[in-house]
């Protein structure tokens, strides 16, 4: 956490985080606009933020996109904030909630976290029904080979739409599959109303990708959920849901260490 606090101590770096909070997924050129800093200075500040894991980066062709990463803020909240009284928690957690919001100007969600586990155990947690049901509330069922179908189940209720499939499967390194369509069965299980379901059904099927990298005594997990249209209702819902799901995954695996 020393690197996180050192990174946040600089006002210029906080401005960069503010800029990404307002519009996620910016290039270096976009971040330089409107800031009274040389391009080289911005690059150095971004390197510090990335080293502290306050931002995540993705390559898209020749462009390097920068995304706000809420994971270190979550760690700070888990370690200290819960000890304070309710009013102080509410005041401090405003920062946490602000950083977890994903602007929809770039129609995708990117999140990086670190889990004290092995790639093998994390892979099992991503694909085995007893794991996914424990931290997600949904059991995923598939052969987990490229082209295999992915079924979704909550208790006795299944909502396999026949179209969710495995796109990539490189054990212990990378997993990608197309997201389920929003069916009436899913809406009933999730408590989603008919009006929201109607909006969701008009959107294209998205995809989620998990990237696993060994990192010290643990694993760096990056989740990319993309394939959305600008202004997507699904993206807005998933952006608030993914941090909670991944926090549950992290807690589940680290309790077993």
Radius of gyration (CA) equals 19 Å
Order of helices and strands: HHHHEEHHEHHEEEEEHHEEH
Portion of residues in beta strands equals: 15-25%
Care to count the β-strands?
Answer: 10
Please describe the biggest sheet, giving its number of strands, its sense, and whether it closes into a barrel. 5 strands, antiparallel
Mean pLDDT: 84
Shape: globular
Tell me what you see in this structure.
This protein has 257 residues and is an alpha+beta fold. Helices cover 45% and strands 22% of the residues. It has 11 helices and 10 strands. It has helices at residues 2-8, 11-22, 28-32, 39-51, 71-79, 86-100, 119-127, 129-136, 184-190, 194-201, 233-255, and strands at residues 55-60, 63-68, 109-115, 139-141, 151-154, 157-158, 166-170, 174-178, 207-215, 218-226. A 5-stranded antiparallel beta sheet has the order 3-10-9-8-7, covered by helices on one side. A 3-stranded antiparallel beta sheet has the order 4-5-6.
Outline:
The protein is an alpha+beta fold. 45% of the residues lie in helices and 22% in strands. It has helices at 2-8, 11-22, 28-32, 39-51, 71-79, 86-100, 119-127, 129-136, 184-190, 194-201, 233-255, and strands at residues 55-60, 63-68, 109-115, 139-141, 151-154, 157-158, 166-170, 174-178, 207-215, 218-226.
């Amino acid at each position: 956490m020393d690197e996180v606090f050192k990174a946040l101590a600089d006002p210029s770096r906080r401005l960069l985080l503010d800029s990404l909070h307002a519009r996620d997924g910016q290039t270096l050129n976009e971040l330089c606009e409107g800031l009274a800093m040389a391009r080289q200075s911005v690059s150095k500040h971004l390197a510090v933020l990335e080293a502290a894991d306050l931002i995540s980066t993705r390559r898209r062709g020749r462009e390097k996109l920068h995304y706000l990463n809420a994971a270190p803020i979550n760690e700070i909240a888990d370690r200290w904030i819960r000890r304070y009284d309710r009013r102080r928690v509410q005041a401090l957690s405003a920062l946490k909630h602000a950083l977890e919001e994903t602007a929809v100007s770039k129609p995708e969600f990117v999140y990086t976290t670190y889990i004290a586990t092995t790639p093998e155990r994390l892979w099992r947690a991503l694909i085995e029904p007893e794991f996914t049901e424990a931290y997600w509330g949904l059991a995923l069922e598939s052969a987990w080979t490229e082209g295999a179908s992915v079924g979704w189940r909550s208790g006795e209720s299944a909502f396999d739409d026949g179209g969710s499939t495995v796109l990539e499967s490189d054990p212990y390194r990378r997993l990608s599959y197309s997201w389920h369509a929003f069916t009436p069965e899913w809406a009933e299980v999730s408590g989603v109303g008919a009006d929201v379901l109607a909006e969701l059904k008009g959107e294209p099927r998205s995809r989620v990708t998990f990237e696993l990298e060994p990192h010290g005594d643990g694993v760096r997990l990056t989740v990319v959920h993309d394939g959305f249209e600008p202004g997507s209702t699904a993206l807005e819902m998933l952006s608030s849901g993914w941090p909670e799901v991944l926090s549950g995954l992290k807690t589940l695996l680290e309790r077993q260490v």
